[in-house]
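OP here, attaching both records as promised.
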Amino acid sequence: MTVAELPEYIVECPEGYKISLNKPITIDSANVQVLTMREPTVQDMLAAEMQAKGQSEANQEIAMFANLCSVAPDNIKGATLKDYRRIQEAFKLFTA
């Protein structure tokens, strides 16, 4: 997917991608409408594996996304499924 093909809710930025959420999530008592996801490293992948050791692949993915977006895993878990799919879509752009 090229930048021209990005959906309107994902915008490339110097830090990585900005993801506009359909429904805000609450972080530290503030409603957050946009998450910024930085490009992952191999170390991020290893850290997510260790953090979610013995848990499901979904929990490992949530740990990875939370780290890349600089939020707590519970913040990602509080997103709607539609917004979670947007986060997954942004992540896939780094691995394409």
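Record two, same layout:
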Amino acid sequence: MLKSLKEIDLTMLHVTNEGTTLVKQAEDFASNKKAFVWKIIKLHDKYVTYVTECLQGHTLFHKALKEAFEVFCNKGVSGSSSAELPASFCDNILKKGCSEKLSDEAIEDALEKADICP
């Protein structure tokens, strides 16, 4: 059991480090917040898939993933919290979805994926 807990802690640390790196990069390139949100979404998708497929969806790994995202989603990026950026992203999708000729499915998918910061 101790080995498993160590693996869970290492997973959380790894995901936290990747997310924190994205936050630091976003601070350097503050003008492209949309790209930052997409990178966070891709990071989340990557690790949810990993936990689901490789770790049999183990609840402790899902919890570690959630906690890792809480760490860097609560950090500030260019005057906004990382949690505010997905909200702004969703607002822009809803406003510009029609003008960018996105399908209803594409809009719904983007909105669903943007709900990653606890």
